[in-house]
Specification:
The protein is of the alpha/beta class. The chain has three helices and eight strands; from the N terminus they run E-H-E-H-E-E-E-E-H-E-E. Helix 1 packs across helix 2. The longest helix has 14 residues.
C-alpha cells in the first residue's frame, strides 16, 4: 500500500520558476508547513530571496538564508533558502527547480515540490523513480497550460 503521508508534487512549468515557487511558498505558509527552498546557485538564492520579499504587499512570509540572519534565528523563519539540504528551520517540505538530488536526507521531509521546465519530462521521471525508492510513493503532476493548471500524467 502506498505511503500517502509522504508525497511529491511535480509542476511542469512554461513560465518563470521563481514566480511559481513564490506562489507555492505563500500557499505552504497559509498551511503552516515549513519549507526548505533548495537553490542551484547563490545567484538563484538571492533572486528568490528578493522575490519573496516583494511578492505581495498583503502578505509577509518570514524567510531567511545563510548570511541574512544567524542560524539561531532560523527557527523563526517559515521558509529557508539554501544551496544545501539543511534543517535550520525544521522544514517539512523540500522545494526545488528540478534538481537531481542524491541525498538520503530527502527521507526526512514529509513532502517535496519539484518544479521543472515542461520540456524536461524525461529527467523528472528519473527523479520520480528516485523519490519512490525513498518511500515517496504518493506522486502527482500538474502541467501549466497558459494561465491554468491541468492534471498531468504521473511521472
Amino acid at each position: 500500500m502506498p505511503n500517502t503521508d509522504r508525497n511529491v508534487i511535480f509542476y511542469a512549468v512554461e513560465s518563470d520558476f521563481a514566480n511559481v515557487a513564490v506562489k507555492l511558498i505563500e500557499k505552504k505558509y497559509t498551511q503552516n508547513e515549513r519549507v526548505l527552498l533548495l537553490c542551484s546557485s547563490a545567484d538563484e538564492l538571492h533572486l528568490l530571496d528578493s522575490n519573496i520579499w516583494t511578492y505581495s504587499k498583503l502578505s509577509f512570509i518570514p524567510h531567511g538564508c545563510n548570511g541574512s540572519l544567524g542560524d539561531e534565528n532560523a527557527r523563526f523563519c517559515h521558509t529557508w533558502l539554501s544551496t544545501d539540504i539543511i534543517f535550520h528551520n525544521a522544514p517539512e517540505c523540500l522545494m526545488h527547480n528540478g534538481l537531481t538530488i542524491k541525498d538520503d536526507q530527502v527521507q526526512k521531509f514529509k513532502s517535496i515540490i519539484d518544479i521543472f521546465d515542461k520540456g524536461l519530462i524525461a529527467e523528472s521521471r528519473m527523479r520520480a523513480a528516485y523519490y519512490e525508492a525513498m518511500d515517496f510513493t504518493c506522486q502527482k503532476t500538474w502541467v501549466q497550460d497558459g494561465n491554468k493548471w491541468i492534471p498531468g500524467e504521473n511521472t
